[in-house]
Automatic annotation (TrEMBL):
GO terms assigned for molecular function: coenzyme F420-0:L-glutamate ligase activity; coenzyme F420-1:gamma-L-glutamate ligase activity; GTP binding; metal ion binding; oxidoreductase activity, acting on the CH-CH group of donors, with a flavin as acceptor
Encoding gene, per UniProt annotation: fbiB
Required co-factors: Mg(2+); Mn(2+); K(+)
Positions bound to a divalent metal cation 1: D93, D134
Cofactor binding, per record: Binds 2 divalent metal cations per subunit. The ions could be magnesium and/or manganese.
Entry binding sites for a divalent metal cation 2: T135
Name of this chain's protein: Bifunctional F420 biosynthesis protein FbiB
Organism in which the protein naturally occurs: Streptomyces globosus
NCBIfam families to which the protein is assigned, alphabetical: F420_cofE, F420_FbiB_CTERM, PRK13294.1
UniProt lineage: Bacteria, Bacillati, Actinomycetota, Actinomycetes, Kitasatosporales
GO biological processes: F420-0 metabolic process
Sequence positions that bind GTP: I12, P13, E14, V15, S42, K47, N96
List of residues binding FMN: A269, S380, R417
Length: 429
């Protein structure tokens, strides 16, 4: 196909709740043919379906239409709405509607498109495709464009994977959002303020047919690399981090762990020092050598405490979270650059500053692992046998092992965290 025509349909009257859109379109475009594609602005669909609320209730309407907040900046909210679309203000719109009212998106845009298509087939005996369109902003790009929010009888995606380009190169990732391209083309002739809410595309009949809907254009959460805004992503990475005690056998990408180390190094520290060192145990041999030595030291301590062999075995099993993890990291603290006062209280406070800084670095490390979709468990057992750890890992005496971090893919979904009320942890003076 080397050419096609896109034209606006004149004469569509003002739409009111209860109006039959198929009948209104058929009256204004009686020359529709098989294979035509109608591009229908969502606003007239919303009006016909009575999706109109008072402007004073706009914020409540946005709340009601919102499934999750993607990003927030001042009063502006980018959210995922109940139709699965990510849009400013959940698609609640104050344009092209009566004063003091706002429009919600159609309840089910795909069903709305199917109803118009069926109605036109009944009234004009034509087989057409229908796309419901709405205006949307785009990440990384300035300006608005129309996209498909509902569809019936149109091939919404053109999957070119497996074919080749003009040079014979294989296409491995090319899936064209055909319905969105049609919506944008229609917007060029409909206009935003010209009272032309419907356009017709002629010459692309090969795109008509099938049962695909615009819902297929919504990227699944597991494939969405940009699911949240920056501040929301940071906050969720912190709040969604969990201590993971069961891991899959999937290997851990060492580069992901190194990115987490890089994040750890941005934590605050006293006197412009860098008190963090991370020992990464990537081989099973190195992990088992360390864990076996730590286990033996723990057993010796427990026997000195007078524990029974049964009690000792039960306690030692707690270390399985480290033994079963496919990757271990041992964060260490160094106090190079610490001040020495020759005064017990002040020297103790100086060390505590470095301990706090190390904890901040480890927190950065754990949160970044969570952002990499890696589970982790910070276990403090190395602190009880530092000499053993230093000997096995051949570490300098100045390195203090501050725990071991088990790392891997979580073997099960995270359990909900018990709610904590911030006010219970706050004192205001």
């Amino acid at each position: 196909m080397t050419a096609y025509e896109v034209r606006a349909v004149p004469g569509i009257p003002e739409v009111s709740p209860g109006d039959d859109l198929a009948r209104l379109i058929a009256a204004s475009a009686p020359d529709l043919r098989d294979g035509d594609i109608l591009l229908v602005t969502s606003k007239i669909v919303s009006k016909s379906e009575g999706r109109i609320v008072r402007a004073a209730s706009r914020e409540e309407a946005i709340d009601a239409e919102t499934v999750r907040v993607v990003a927030r900046r001042g009063a502006l909210r980018i959210v995922q709405n109940r139709q699965g679309l990510v849009m400013a203000a959940a698609g609640v719109d104050a344009s092209n509607t009566a004063p003091d009212t706002v429009l919600l998106l159609p309840e089910d845009p795909d069903a709305s498109a199917a109803a118009i298509r069926t109605g036109l087939a009944r009234l004009l005996s034509v087989d057409v495709g229908v796309v419901i369109t709405d205006t949307s902003g785009r990440p990384w790009r300035t300006g608005l464009t129309d996209i498909a929010v509902g569809s019936a009888g149109v091939r919404v995606l053109d999957d070119l994977r497996g074919s080749t380009d003009t040079h014979g190169n294989p296409l491995t990732a090319t899936v064209v959002a055909t319905a969105d391209e049609l919506a944008a083309a229609g917007d060029l002739v409909k206009g935003k303020a010209a009272n032309r809410p419907v356009a017709v595309v002629r010459g692309l009949s090969h795109l008509v047919g099938g049962d695909a809907t615009a819902a297929r254009l919504v990227r699944p959460a597991e494939d969405d690399m940009f699911r949240l805004g920056t501040s929301e992503a940071v906050r969720q990475a912190v709040t969604q981090r969990r201590t993971v005690r069961a891991f899959t056998d999937d290997p851990v990408d060492p580069a992901a762990v190194r990115r987490a180390v890089a994040a750890a190094l941005t934590a605050p520290a006293p006197h412009h020092t860098t008190p963090w060192r991370f020992v990464l145990l990537e081989s099973r041999t190195a992990r088992l050598e360390l864990l076996d030595a730590m286990r033996d030291a723990w057993i010796a301590d427990l026997r000195r405490d007078g524990r029974s062999e049964e009690s000792i075995a039960r306690r030692v099993r707690r270390g399985d979270v480290l033994r079963n993890a496919p990757y271990l990291a041992v964060p260490c603290m160094v106090t190079d650059g610490a001040h020495h006062y020759g005064h017990a209280r002040r020297d103790a406070a100086e060390r505590e500053m470095f301990v706090v800084a190390t904890g901040a670095g480890v927190q950065n490390f754990l949160v970044t692992l969570a952002a990499e979709r890696l589970g982790s468990a910070w276990v403090s057992s190395t602190m009880f046998c530092r000499d053993v750890v230093r000997k096995v890992l051949a570490l300098p005496d100045s390195w203090d092992p501050m725990g071991a971090v088990a790392i891997g893919r979580p073997a099960e979904p995270a359990r909900p965290r018990p709610e904590r009320i911030p006010d219970e942890f706050i004192e205001v003076r």
